[in-house]
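Posting here for the record, re: cobalamin.
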Amino acid sequence: MPPVETPVEKWAGKIHEVNLGGDARRLVVGGETTLPFLHFEGAIPHPPAVAVEVQDRPPASWAPELRASWGEAMEDPASWAKKAVEYGADLIVLYLSSAHPDDQNTGPQEAKKTVTRVLSTVDAPLIILGPGIAEKDNEVLVAAAEAAAGRRVALGFCEQKNYRTIIAACMANNHVAVAKTPVEINLAKQLNILICDMGLAPDSILMDPTTGALGYGLEYTYSVMERLRLAGLQGDKMAAMPMFCTVGEEAWRQKEARATEGIPAAWGDIATRALRWEELTAMTLLLAGADVVVLRHPQVVQRIKATIQKLMTKE
Amino acid sequence: MALTGIEIYKHLPKTNCKECGQPTCLAFAMKLAQKGIELSKCPHVSPEAAAALEAAAKPPMRLVTIGVGDKKLEVGNETVLFRHEKTFLNPTGIMVRVADNQPAAEVESLVAEVASYSLERVGMELRPNGFAVDNRSHNPSSFAQCVATIRAKSQLPLVLISQDPSALETALEKVGQERPLIYAADSHNSEGVIKLAKKYQCPLAIRAEDGLGQLAELSDLAAKAGVEDIVLDPGTRGFASSLEALTQIRRLALKKNFRPLGYPVITFPGEGAATPEEEVLLAGEHVAKYANIIVLDHFSPGHAYPLLTLRQNIYTDPQKPIQVSPGMYTIGSPRDNSPLLITTNFSLTYFSVAGEVEASGFPSWLLIADTEGLSVLTSWAAGKFDAEKIAKTVKGFNAQDSVRHRKLIIPGAVAVLRGELEDELSGWEIMVGPREAVDIGGFLKRVWAN
Ligand code: B12
Ligand code: SF4
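Prediction output follows.
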């Protein structure tokens, strides 16, 4: 019997280390020199971070189970963020949803106020997302960037059709950009290149490859992320950004997390099924290389935190 | 792993005697690599070289069959580490553990629940694959009795779990001809258990407590004793340790062609998890990263459904979406005043919509456009589900002959197409449906009831 040699891959590349947060609380993501959780092969200096999604007004469309889990905290983004940190959030994703023209169409003033309040309530680093309409994103994110100066937050989404204003705001205030592309490896690299060409450093970018939920495109996201991570480790610096996944948003949009009537018994009860749906989506994408998973349900936050800790511990 | 011509050439006599009909040994090797000639055409290959070539031509991970008949489980034969390289082939077998010290009534209800568990997703049946009977009682006759209780309720494949060869044999006397997986030969009982696998011609699991070196040794021992169908348990149980071991086994088998570990792997996530919820997560890790068989300690629909869905996701081809044929579909028995909806021919999209329309209780017409298997927004963004395509689909499948009204319901996600569509389809009213299929029932009640 020949001895069993440990099959170690030699990687030339390293995932960029992205720093977030202010003096009171810093967070670093990325820095891996091996595939997810393969401690025998390389370094994983920072565990993947768990982010909790907080919206700047109560999200009426969220599933009842989800709304009940946060209760009154949802009335105020600062209390909501505070509670999220108590549940173990490493960082907060603050959605400025009210700025959407179909919502309350709020503007830069309100954005500034919300961001300031959240930042003064929690030390945890922040990722601030606009409502997803180019001109409104630019308006509210520029205001947010200024309000958050000195706290190194991340701003998104930068998309191919709209990134310049947001990148300029990142550069002016030393913030991080979240670059989002639709499940395609070349588009992801291309956008990173465009952003770096503007002058933002590669270690100031998180990339969002677009999340598909379990049963709703997860397999596409999974494979695109594996390919991006392999490319990054093989030395492609424009594919070596830490990856960011909006797990909760996608999982809770699906029928499995919402439907209570006329459901086959094989689906099980709604609470069990919905929580597992979010957890398994997160788990699978962590194995594909997610560095930040954005979650919604407090119990899921706790379970995924505990699981990451186990994945980071060599037994 | 297929050998290259050069690799084959190294094993040939290199005399260029031409007796094989080829000008040189190298030419012969090249032809053999392309499977254009038989190795036997060369009279001069040594038996050792022939054996080496034959072994090298075997798949790097053996295909192992557990059970017999149409419910049998085939696992292994995987050829890649990442699913974007090539589709994973044989979906992870999911078995549910049954302990033989449980009261018979409990066993019966668990077995009945698992055996009848089945659901349809994207037109495919999802179900667990069998049972792992565990000799917790340490009593051979309870073990055999438990196997009989299961068999009275279900014919699904079995794993027989015991350390004790005599307990295993009492069970094998009952079901040995059904190819159960014998679990497991380890460093204490290997001799007796390997004998059983030989005697009953059953697949054999081996378990190491002490690393992959020991696993390889035990596997080599079993193979030398003539057991061909082997399943590996590296003995690791935790999140990090099992990911590490399973990754190393898969790499050694596929990239190093390391024969002693070229077999499917079995895991027990319940043994590494503190709660049933955590067990699902660890099982999920194992579905994604390299388990071929998973034994679950807990079974409940709310846990089984997401896990089976994950298995379905991981084992599909990421390059070629599963599609349905374009055309006019009927849900229930629609009449000329029934709703008419349109969507794309991505299977997932079609089944999501068809399921909701059916549940709404409104018999309906459902038009399926040819979007090359892309979802609504993907195909819209790719220019394959625009106003022109939708209009062409409506006319091409003669929707105007099926319905008397002129109302077409489009997905909420492509509401922007409405104006353009009303230009393309003159005389038609375009109704924007909800964004998510789950809201179709409520929508139809609101807009179609009168
Ligand atoms: C998986 C995926 C892919 C897969 C393809 C999967 C497939 N077979 O379609 C891949 C990786 C190949 C892909 C490619 C692209 N994608 Co894509 N993709 C996704 C992803 C992650 C999930 C899509 C999915 O499967 N949804 C599940 C199905 C069931 O949803 P659905 O078809 O919409 O159906 C639902 C509803 O619409 C409704 N419904 C459906 N029909 C009907 C009918 C009626 C009458 C009603 C009432 C309701 C209804 O019911 C369903 C369930 O609720 C989404 C983002 C996301 N998270 O959703 C992006 C997304 C759809 N992709 C997008 C894009 C841009 C692309 C590309 C064009 C990118 C590019 N430039 O290369 C390519 C195009 C492909 C090509 N060039 O051929 C964008 C579209 C942007 C937009 N808003 O227009 C999205 C939204 C990502 C994003 N945010 O940017 N993609
Ligand atoms: S018969 Fe064998 S030894 Fe002779 S040329 Fe062919 S391959 Fe070479």
